[in-house]
Amino acid sequence: MRNTFLRKILAIVLAAVLLSAVMTLLVFRMTGIGVYSEIQLNELQPRAAFLAKRSAQYLLGTIGYREYQSIVVENNSIWGAAPYIFTVDGTLFVYPPDTDTEAGKRTLSFVESYLPTVLSGNSVSIRSSFAADTLIGEPIYGKTGNVIGAVFLLKPLSELRTAMKSLWTALLIAVCVITLLMILPAYLVSRRVAKPLRQMNEAALAMAHGNFSIRADVRGSDEVAQLGSSINYLSEALSKTISDLIFERNRLRTTLDGLGEGVIGLNAEARVMQYNPAAVMLLGGCEQANLGSIPVFADTILPKAADAIAKAEDFSFEEKVGERIISVSLSLLKGAQGSIAGGILLVRDNTESARLEQTRRDYVANVSHELRTPLASIRSLSDALSDGLVKKEEDRIRYYGYIQKESMRLSRLIDDLLELSRLQSGTIAFEKRKMDVAELVYDVAERYKMSAEESGHRLQLRMPDVIPFAYGNQDRVEQVLIILLDNAFKHASENSAVSLAVAEKTDKLEITVSNKGTIDREDLPHVFERFYKADKAHTGNGTGLGLSIAKEIIKLMGETITVECEDETVRFRFTISTHLQKNAKQV
């Protein structure tokens, strides 16, 4: 396997050599005869002209037959071809000795076919092919330029084939010898090319196993050297990147180990990838315990997390572990293409906060009961005053006013506290029935029009012409509307309008109460908390419980209520379902 690339390069080089040799042989095979024939024609042309000149001298009587015979006939071998010489009347008087044979007759017939052309004063030049002989024909001219005969030189095809065979054999032997001689240079060149690539492969494998100190041997400036330089640069970059990642991982590990909350990382298949010691401790395990061996995690939390990841939904719930109340929440992790890559489970100990919340609830209930005693005292004092114990009339009237005002305020406070306590206890269930929201809103708006005018405000009502019926508790919805309108009139800017609007959403009706005014951004998350007032001195009117009651009512009906402040306008919105939910509480 280590020499696979070397063998491939060697095979490619030798294949290129062999292919070049084969192509050379094929080209020579196709063009060699024509080229060789052309050479033969070029050699025979001056010889034919010489014979024509001497034959003209003989035919004109300038030289005798003896001299002509010694030049033309007796030196027949010097022409390199068979001579055929005709007189102007077509008489053949010089010809090869084998003319009387069957083959000679066929050759003579081939020559005679061109005799008219030559006797007409034209030269003939026939190049040999695979099936024809090489033929040169020249006319013999007299003193006046007239044609008095014809000279032909014919090169037989058999001679051409014999010569070509010799050349072919020599070329084939040369190709074989050259191919054998090229094996060693091809091997040396291939090994030189493959060696740096093999070193780069070893360097890449070493980097894959974590050794980033290795470097490829770079020599020269060709493409292979550039590849080696790139691998070395990659090694340096990877070394730095992985060092940074290791540092970040260690820092994250230290941070997670130092957190008081438990953090558990899950992959897309809900398998635990990492967790910190706090997660094990909060779920009831010992310090060295495995997270998967803790029953509450394996049997409750992990199945819920797997289901939530499969459905791509976050979740949050509380679980009792021993004496502690644990809050578990899942936040999904998304990959590069938006797919769910896993999730992070956050485990918190809510024991103390739950205990404080329960203490607050108990405190409200206890305060409500305790306030009834001073309320009874205040009323008894008012009875005493009415019996005449205070002599001055103006003093009695003033005391009456004070006592009555305080008693009514305390009474409202007690009622609100009891109402909120009942709602938060979870013991109240609302019956959801079909209700006419339009009629309810119109009725509440009519009742508030007069009080709006008395307070210097205006009530604006905006509703579509047709509003579908909704499902809810009509009395409680009316209670929420009154709370929100009271709050709006109480905090609206002077001589401004309070808006009551109804809009249809998907499967919901959205009711909005808005007024001119502002709520600081830091106060918005606490608006629905009991006793919370933006006025930190608590000098304003109200108990600070109305919005808390409204939120609890909406929550128990399975709806939502929100607040926002934009463009100096405060908007409270809550929803009512237009379809009866299956999990709605019934009485």
Write the layout of secondary structure elements.
Elements: H1 4-59, H2 65-73, E1 82-87, E2 92-94, H3 102-112, H4 115-119, E3 124-126, E4 134-141, E5 147-155, H5 157-208, H6 223-258, E6 262-267, E7 272-275, H7 277-282, H8 295-311, E8 315-321, E9 324-334, E10 340-349, H9 351-386, H10 393-425, E11 433-435, H11 437-454, E12 458-462, E13 470-472, H12 474-491, E14 497-505, E15 508-516, H13 546-556, E16 561-566, E17 569-577
Parallel strand pairs: 12-14
Antiparallel strand pairs: 1-2, 1-5, 3-4, 4-5, 6-7, 6-10, 8-9, 9-10, 11-13, 14-15, 15-17, 16-17
Overview of this protein structure:
The protein has 587 residues and is α+β, with helices and mostly antiparallel strands. It folds into four domains: 4-164, PAS domain (Beta-Lactamase, 2-Layer Sandwich); 259-349, Beta-Lactamase; 354-425, Signal transduction histidine kinase, dimerisation/phosphotransfer (DHp) domain (Helix Hairpins, Orthogonal Bundle), CATH 1.10.287.130; 433-577, 2-Layer Sandwich (Heat Shock Protein 90). The protein is 52% helix and 19% strand. It is built from 13 helices and 17 strands. The strands form four sheets. The chain has a five-stranded antiparallel β-sheet with strand order 2-1-5-4-3. Strands 7-6-10-9-8 form a five-stranded antiparallel β-sheet, with helices on both faces. The longest helix has 56 residues, at 4-59. The chain is elongated.
